[in-house]
Design brief:
heterodimer, A: 180 residues, 65% helix, B: 244 residues
Chain lengths: 180, 244
């Protein structure tokens, strides 16, 4: 009699454990489906993925910290990039316009202009680019004027008097208001 | 993914715009007829200068028996002309100023960034065109869209008053494009305009007071959106330049 009771209790216990196991299996898919947006614990895969990410671009604050001179040279570089890109346009009006813009730049753009000249198969475009390079290489009128002024100063000579009238129109120069 | 979502959103907006255009087409024609009574709004665009001045330098040998003549060249760019001008204008913060050409007034200006300060420098820098004009291109009278190029003899002259000057004569090609009316709502009409000129010429001048010969190119081009607004018996237009 006692044996029967013990056996029944063991069977009942096994039944409870079996039921609990079944219930647990049944609940797992429900939990998986119900909690897809919970934040997963960092896995090995996640850590590996993070470590292979490319270096990030400077944040806005980092960019603001760039000295003004560097920001200026970045702007010049981006202007040069635009000019070089437009020089490679098949449309003549576009590349000729870009060439006029290139002539406004300083000498550092020359190396890139030479590369475009080497690559172009259009003899007219190549000649135009080489002409532009010659132009950029010329001394500026302002450098010439400054040189003349320095030479006069070294010799103790005064600057020549300024003209009051325009050589071509014969009309007097109109000075803007002094408050600038 | 975000871009796709934006694109589909833009498509929806385009559909709405298209529906709106169909709905107000009669009003659009009304606004367009107002536009006929107005000159095309002008564009004030940067002036690009690339001119070469060639002058002569003479040297006599020690014995005074041989004179050697050498030609030398200097470049004149927009920036250098601005600097020459500033010897007279005395603008502070010159780097914020640039030379621009007002196509309507046909005058050259020195304008600061954001147009806070405008100086008429037409007593130093002149652009004169003659009357004999040759045009090419087309004008659509129904849509008021056009694409024309006008060739005209022109003289562009500069004098800084300190012995640096040039006067170039050549052919100026003036291009003017007006896209067809793009959209309109109520009594407003919107036009996309692009115009400018290219010029190449040769002529005399001086470099530092020395006689010189000049050749080169000068150009200016820009674009703008004209908005024509009518209401209460008044019609006006305003320009929106790229970057405003």
């Amino acid at each position: 009699m006692r044996t029967k009771v013990v056996l029944s209790a063991v069977l009942l216990g096994c039944g409870v454990i079996g039921l609990a196991t079944w219930l647990n299996r049944a609940v797992i898919p429900i939990n998986n489906g119900a909690l897809p947006e919970t934040i997963p614990a960092p896995s090995k895969g996640f850590i590996t993925q993070k470590s292979t990410r490319p270096p990030q671009a400077p944040s806005r604050m980092d960019r603001l910290a760039i000295p003004e001179k560097s920001a200026l040279s970045l702007a010049v570089r981006s202007e040069c990039d635009r000019i070089i890109a437009e020089l490679q346009s098949p449309e003549e009006s576009v590349w000729r316009g870009a060439l006029e813009q290139a002539k406004q730049q300083d000498r550092p753009i020359i190396a890139r202009l030479r590369q475009v000249a080497d690559q172009t198969e259009d003899p007219a475009q190549k000649a135009a680019i080489l002409d532009a390079i010659d132009f950029i290489n010329l001394p500026s009128i302002t450098d010439y004027v400054a040189g003349q002024k320095a030479m006069r100063a070294a010799e103790g000579l005064p600057d020549p008097p300024a003209s009051l009238t325009n050589r071509w129109t014969g009309k007097p120069f109109i000075q803007p208001p002094a408050s600038h | 993914m975000k871009k796709r979502a934006l694109n589909s959103c833009g498509g929806a907006i385009l559909l709405v715009l298209a529906g709106g255009l169909v709905g107000v087409s009669g009003v659009a024609l009304h606004a367009q007829s107002y536009f006929s009574y107005f000159d095309i709004p002008s564009i004030v665009a940067p002036l690009t200068i690339s001119v070469t001045g060639t002058y002569e330098v003479d040297k006599t040998n020690a014995a005074g028996t041989v004179i050697t003549m050498t030609d030398k060249s200097v470049k004149w760019t927009s920036r250098s002309v601005e600097k020459l001008l500033n010897a007279s204008l005395n603008l502070t913060n010159l780097s914020s100023y640039s030379l621009k050409y007002d196509q309507s007034e046909q005058i050259v200006l020195m304008i600061s960034e954001k147009e806070a300060d405008t100086n008429d420098v037409s007593s130093y820098f002149t652009i004169d065109t003659q009357n004999n004009v040759v045009s090419s291109g087309s004008i659509n009278l129904a849509t008021e869209a056009w694409n024309t190029t006008v060739s005209v003899p022109a003289t562009i002259a500069f004098d800084d008053g300190n012995g640096d000057n040039f006067s170039l004569t050549g052919i100026m090609k003036f291009t003017n494009i007006n896209g067809a009316q793009k959209n309109s709502f109520g009594l407003k009409a919107k036009y996309e305009l692009a115009s400018g000129f290219t010029f190449s010429g040769t002529g005399p001048g001086k470099v530092g007071g020395t006689n010189a010969v000049f050749s080169g190119a000068i150009s200016s081009s820009g674009s703008a959106t004209a908005i024509i607004a009518s209401g209460g018996g008044l019609t006006s237009y305003s320009l929106i330049y790229p970057g405003d």
